[in-house]
Amino acid sequence: MIVRDEIQAVTDRIAKRSEKTRAAYLSACRANMRPGPRRKRLSEGNLAHATAACPVLEKTELLGARWPNVGIVTAYNDMLSAHQPFDRFPEIIKTAARQNGATAQVAGGVPAMCDGVTQGQDGMELSLFSRDVIAAGTAIALSHDCFDSVIHLGVCDKIVPGLIIAALRYGYLPQIFAPAGPMPSGIPNPEKARVRQLFAAGEVGRDELLAAEAASYHAPGTCTFYGTANTNQMLMEIMGMQLPGSSFIHPNTPMRDAMTIQTTRRAIEITNMTDAFTPACDVIDERAIVNGLVGLMATGGSTNLTIHLSAIARSAGILINWDDYADVSHIVPLITRVYPNGVSDVNHFHAAGGMAYLIGELIDNGFVHADVTTVAGGEGLVEYTREPILVAEESDIPVSYRAGPTESLDTDVLTSVSEPFRPDGGLALISGNLGRGVMKVSAVKRENWLVEAAAIVIDDQNELIAMHKAGELERDFVAVLRFQGPRANGMPELHKLTPILGLQQDKGFRVALVTDGRMSGASGKVPAAIHLHPEALLGGPLSRVETGDIVRLDPANGMLDVLGADLDARQPAIARLADNLSGLGMNMFAPQRAIASDAESGASTLGDMAFMVQD
């Protein structure tokens, strides 16, 4: 189980770059560790407040005994399909805790917005910053210092990154994630995309479009395409922050409940009141972050993680940049084909062998560090090559583990390193005189990669929609959508443009999108250079592009340039932001927009961490 030299080289480079910040972070975590239970240091008045509403048994144990106390941070609401199942989780966890010599309390709730609801709407401009609100809310929940370990309940796009950013700030505590799982498969994702394009072309009406959408998003659980939410689940598992095999089990099933019970048991077992103490700061190190990068590339995961994983790493004192992503992408083959990289969904991926097969294949071929610390304990990442099975009801242990599959059960969805879908991870670092960004090429047909065409410069995605309706897009073009960065308007996703761009590409036109904003976690078949920085609002080169300039996007060579124009000689355009920042609470987020870091650094509004040291 020796890791490849190329992977080790990236890991060593990250460790060297992070030497001071990581050491300062670990020092801060060690300084906050003390013998449990942690509530012992609270005053009598503090502890009385923390237990006042507890049932008698829990109150007795919290006030006097040495039972560990598990905190629960939940992102439950009943509007998000992926988070609605969490309604039942706290009671399951509390019951399991009592049965295993512990108590559990809901420490706090955090907001969870749905990008699917806000996609293309003004509310999307709050989406990215919601991650840092969630992190801050989690920090408030844990500030009471009553907990010996923490279970996080979250699944979707900004929620898991926000939770783990805060979990790592409290890295001296054991932290474990308990997912809810995906909904059953609905209509095939390509059929949904087809109806969307037909609607964009005016060939079907809203009734047909709504029927297709409702047949796709139809039940409790995560949306089944491989966007940001399901990429989050892969990431938490391959980085060892949740139990093996827990990512893609359906909600409200005996197996899902059993995994939640087992998660509770494990949260109790890894407190500092046992010999198996496993604080989060020991789980997420440079090797775990590289394992996350490898998983992202091997599965063709969401481009949003090129932002979130950078922010997550920084919360553990680890500094990564897009060069690390690009180098790992060059090394690691794509061995998963899930929509939008294919036609199947995550349920097919799970049935084909899922995470157990994927991780086993990566370990056997030296692409991941197996000798890491995980919440599962045992043999490090090797534990994640096993899959859970239900145990008889009369047993005290809800699940046991068996060896996972060593061969894919569906090679159209999950293949091998020796016969990959692509020789690389399908993520390209893009740079040139328009700045620095990323492009997901794994879902883009090779013949559509290179685009050289006249720019159409817009400041609002609705401008391109209006041009489409007016018949003005019947040509090759590069849509340059500027003033969409974190400082401008919170960096919304621009998935609203996907059906139009896809339709024009299907007509034979060469089209692309270039922006300082984000695409959906399901970035698809149209070439899109995204997350560009410096962003336009800060005078970046996007602010100097003019309609008619010839833009060349060449992901094969990692290049993005305006040809034949002296951008430095032009004055930057002035952003027109007043209209879209006045409603839906947008003005409340002006302080966050003013301090947000660039996308490569994680687009963070939390500021430098106390352990970040200066050279």
UniProtKB/TrEMBL annotation:
Catalytically driven reaction(s): 6-phospho-D-gluconate = 2-dehydro-3-deoxy-6-phospho-D-gluconate + H2O
Cofactor note: Binds 1 [4Fe-4S] cluster.
Record domain Dihydroxy-acid/6-phosphogluconate dehydratase C-terminal: where: 412-603
Needed co-factor(s): [4Fe-4S] cluster
Gene3D superfamilies: IlvD/EDD C-terminal domain-like (3.50.30.80)
Pathway membership: Carbohydrate metabolism; Entner-Doudoroff pathway
Protein name, as recorded: Phosphogluconate dehydratase
Organism: Algimonas porphyrae
Lineage of the organism: Bacteria, Pseudomonadati, Pseudomonadota, Alphaproteobacteria, Maricaulales
Protein's gene: edd
